[in-house]
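Hi team, as promised in this morning's meeting, here are the two structures we talked about. I've kept the exact order from the run log so nobody has to guess. The first one is mostly here for context; it's the second one we should focus on when we meet again. Sequence first, then the predicted structure tokens.
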Amino acid sequence: MLRKMLLIAAAVAMPVGVIAVTAGTASAAKVTDTTGAPATASCTTSGGTLTFKVPIGIVTAGGYQAPVKNKGQQIKVAGVTLTCTSSAVSQGSFTGTLSGKIKSGNPTDTPAMEYSCTGLVGVSPAPGGFLTGALKIKWNAPAGTKFSEKKSGIAVTSISGGVNGSGQGTFTIPGNPGTGSISGGFPGSDAGASSTSTDATADTEGQLATACMTTGGISTIALGSGTATLQ
């Protein structure tokens, strides 16, 4: 009798065990999230650097001296971390790493004008100048998830520089609203035309100004935090 009861109990328990294993397998399976149009993402940014091929500064006696020739500028963007959410990603927040290069110049500027720190404020390029760039974001999907688009490309044609309420410098892309462009993941419904991002510098405007007047000027600017909307 006891043996019969044990056999019945084992038979009843077996489906439960099978269900548990099946459920575990299902939860571990990769879920594909589409990041194509009209997917959007809202992000915070942190860290990263802007590195100038030609150091910039403010010309002063005994301090910064501009190069002899104006050959334009190249800026390397590296190490910016994005932490984002999106209605197209149901598994929670995810991260990305942004990097890229920007080229700018204005043939009508003197070297002192071209490589001046004052050029960080206002909209670039100014009349007669040019600015082109390409930034890329490499996405890290949440655990158990894969993205149909693993990268986003951002075309840069203008930048707006300013100062925030905490006295830090800011950089907004695009500098001319409504002219953004995104390819790959999270392009929004208008290919990123209405997208925008603003990063603040780690140092204040005053600290940057002091560094601009040193002999070597500024070759690298550390970034702090900011926001980005891919839409």
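And here is the second protein, the one for discussion:
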Amino acid sequence: MTHRNTRLLSVLFGVALLARIGFIGNALASDPLAGEGHAPYPNTTILMLYDFYHNDNVFGGQLGNPNGPNAHDTKITVNIVVPRVLHSFDLGGYNAGVQAYLPYISYLGDQHIGINDLGSAAPGLLPSLGAGRANLGATSGFAQPNFAFYIFPIANRETGTYFVIQPWISPPVSSFNKKNSLNLSEQNVWTFTSEFGARTVLFGTPTTRNLALEVWQETYLYGNNTNSALAEPSISANNIPAIYSFGHSIDPAIPDSNPVRPGSVTPAVFREQPTTEFRVYLAYDFNPATRAFIAPGFYQSFGGKQTYRLHNGTIVDSGDRTSESQLRLVLGSFVTPSIQITLVGDYDIAAHGTPFDRVVEFRFSKLFF
């Protein structure tokens, strides 16, 4: 292997950020991309800059009914910029290192969720209010910082076989606003993540064209936010039937009301159940000289039920889940011996109580030996 190709391998390990902006809003600690199962060489520092564009135009279930029809008049649009640093070292003969990153999330324009049917103010007597939408409060700012330590119990460069263990911790320090429907992180709670990754070459060799299988698994544990709130958005109807304004006698609150239901903020304790995620990639390295590769992949998450306990003891299910099925495509290549460019496309095929993600990601990586 040439010196150039030896050094090229050292940048490929890393954990990308993918902030999932759901109806309540959460940002999971990590989202490994294809090619990140390689162990960096010791004493290498890697600086990375990510830019994500999220455009969610379908919501997986109606507001208050995540199992219902999809809401197709939804707009949740954000841009996320993430600086990140990773430093590797030798630890008793094993490849190890530390890393950290801090996302900044910008909401673009107004955010809302489409509602297929607002129902009737008097079922059986009055017609449905028809379709409408809920306006979602959101504020741009910094999400929670994330810190990790990793170690490779297995790092066989000759066969291209690796196994990594990486715990993450994210303290509750962010631009959290309990009055917002959308927030920047896991409701400003302590988050602990265990992450495992494995990679092996199926066909070819690590220094030639090859096809590799890469698998990742994460489990997230969350603390509670005792200073949270159930933030319900105001709802507007597209076309209120004329009967609702006839004589102003059926319900004085409804005839000229738009929004139909005003927003409210109720103090509460926020809880989120553990989340588990899996990622599988088939990575084809087609240009050994620049480590250029293309990798289709699949992502699946489970769990993450979110509830609020109000001051009177009532438990309210938010309807939000970390339950998502997603197709992915990752392309990457070195453009110089120390600079790597990565492009990622994500497309949700199923979601429960959360927006359908349509994500384009750009990553710039710079090595310092």
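Starting points for discussion:
Residues 3-9 form the longest helix (7 residues).
The two ends are 18 Å apart (CA to CA).
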